[in-house]
Amino acid sequence: MPRIEAVDFFYLAMPVVTDEADGSQDALLVRVAAGGHVGWGECEAAPLPSIAAFICPMSHGVCRPVADSVLGQNLESPEDIARIAAAVAYNSMDLLQAPHTFSGVEMALWDILGKMRSEPVWRLLGYAKSHPKTPYASVLFGDTAQETLERARDARKRSFRAAKFGWGPIGRGSVEADAEHFVAAREGLGQDGILLVDTGQIFIEDVELAAARLPAMEKANVLWFEEPFHASALEAYGGLAKRSPKVRLAGGEGAHNESMARQLIDYGGIGYVQIDCGRIGGIGPSKAVADYAVAKGVTFVNHTFTSHLALSASLQPYAGLAAHEICEYPAMPKPLATAISANHLERDTNGQVAAPDTPGLGIEVATTALRGYLQEVEISVDGKRLYSTPRL
């Protein structure tokens, strides 16, 4: 009977990490061994506390290290993955980093299970086909409207029909200055391009400040207004959702469990729910949110800003949903994120991308290329070594 024999974490980082809102500057890869197979996952979280959550000493009965619920467990079916996830949720309920840590482990378990059965993960999830998605280039707003214009033109030059502009100066200056960026992005993408805006929670809970940007977004034909507020600011989301019949709200990347995502749908009034497999607990809970979104008439979208390993994992939960066709695609990743995988999910002749039709996640991790980014870590308590970086 296949058992989970080993779970290894690898902290990777660029030589210099800046305060730029770019999550591809470091990474936490997870390697899991079970039943003669190796699977890979990636946590979308700060690497060091995520490693610590896996091996930390027990504080009490429901604040236990994630390892206690994973190592030695049977792995033969999707039900086993769900059982392990439930054990982590209960045994580590007071260890708040646990969902982020387990997310990468859970991805790797699906990768292994797919390899065991010679099936892609999306088929194990019950889908008959992996439908192509329209990727949007995920880029940051420029410091000036001219820079934003140039980035939009570059996205279109690289054959992206859609682009999401995020963070940067939006919300930090005047409404008029922000409007210039929206106009510039629209001009660069062209009138037929799909324009998305992400303000990275800059308005906190201030509905009026966020709503002041809506007229300019409507004029620029923005499809969605992403993360105007903190992930849990449900009243603010719900209030803003009523302000524009044209621009829908998007959110959910901050959800680290299914309930948070459902509440954004039910009480936040979002039209697009964006789920990060590397944060919510992995592929299983992401699929549950996708099912819920379908039932509620909300569009499911992946959240992926890093590697193609994370991209493949994030596509699996809604691969079979033909009508949910937009996907985030890492367009400006740091060299580290590009180096993580030996193969990439390239766009087809129609400019679309799909979850691989190969066993597991269909991604080969480029271990040799990553050694230059590897951060050596050792964690000890009272002279006892709990963790040291394994061999990559």
UniProtKB/TrEMBL annotation:
Superkingdom of the source species: Bacteria
InterPro entries membership: DgoD-like (IPR034593), Enolase-like_C_sf (IPR036849), Enolase-like_N (IPR029017), Enolase_C-like (IPR029065), Mandelate_racemase_C (IPR013342), Mandelate_racemase_N_dom (IPR013341)
Span of domain Mandelate racemase/muconate lactonizing enzyme C-terminal: 145-247
Protein name: L-alanine-DL-glutamate epimerase
UniProt source species: Bosea robiniae
Upper taxonomic lineage: Bacteria, Pseudomonadati, Pseudomonadota, Alphaproteobacteria, Hyphomicrobiales
